[in-house]
Amino acid sequence: SDHSLTYPKSPADMDWASLYPAYSLKKSEEVVNDAGGMEVCGSHDETPSDKIRKSTRATTKNVEIADIGCGFGGLLFALAPQFPDTLILGMEIRMSVTEYVHDKIRALRVQNAASDTGTYQNIAVLRANTMKFLPNFFTKHQLHSIFLCFPDPHFKQRKHKARIVSYTLNSEYAYVLRPGGIVYTITDVKDLHEWMVGHFEKHPSFERVGEEEYDGEGDGEIRQRVRIMRTETEEGKKVERNNGDKFVALFRRTEDPPWP
Ligand code: SAM
User: Fold this and answer.
1) Catalytic status, residue 152
2) Where does 67-253 sit in CATH, by number?
3) 93 is in an annotated binding site
4) In whole angstroms, what is the distance from residue 202 CA to residue 220 CA?
5) DSSP letter (8 states) at residue 155
6) 198 torsion bin: left (phi>0), alpha (psi -120 to 50), beta (else)
7) What's the pLDDT tens digit per position in 169-216?
8) Catalytic one among 152, 188, 191, 219?
9) What is the whole-number distance in angstroms between the Cα of residue 214 and the centre of ligand 1?
10) Does the beta carbon of 69 lie inside 6 Å of ligand 1?
């Protein structure tokens, strides 16, 4: 159950600096901050001390990749050194699993503190029910990638409402994803794959990405991310061991139509 979960009132109320301490925005920087692009004071009736207090929780960069239902974090740990300049956030509802990922990130940061190939300062995990209040964590168009890797299938018809892809949730993904950004999906359950494809294709803010853009060898960030998603998630490894199928589908956030 998620009764004990708390949610920030807005993205500016989040303590981002405690998640990404290496990217913490210092107080002195806040006073002269004019180029950071990080909005540290949301509403008009804040006092100056509120602004300072909030700024100490802000970071010099915003999260741009979210792994929804990250489980044991395999994707995060693989993405971290590949995209060292991007802040990546795993979101997971189970407390013990979140704690496991948290502890592993802490250990990796210590072990790799002097590493040239990645210090794991750019990944973090948060316990949350992502079916609720996603826009409280991210501002409009903040993310460039959202991963939905092996979501729980909820096979029975009456359980379908628990799936993390639906018209309503897709509208939330569209809100936090910037135009041109991509939702990456993978599952071993054909029925769920078809469900996800159907729901994203009928949503006006998404269009399907052609296989030629992401399949096979070759360079490019999209291909690289798809390779990692296929091989580095815990579920992806399990399916590999059982010689199961993996169904991949990507959806690009389209531009919003101009106001009439
Ligand atoms: N993505 C990981 C992977 O590919 O190995 C884990 C896949 S696992 C089958 C699905 C995960 O989603 C579980 O860890 C589950 O706790 C989490 N989950 C399910 N519903 C969620 C929700 N509403 N919010 C956050 N996490 C959720």
Assistant:
1) yes
2) 3.40.50.150
3) yes
4) 28
5) -
6) alpha
7) 999 999 999 999 999 999 999 999 999 999 999 999 999 999 999 998
8) 152
9) 24
10) yes
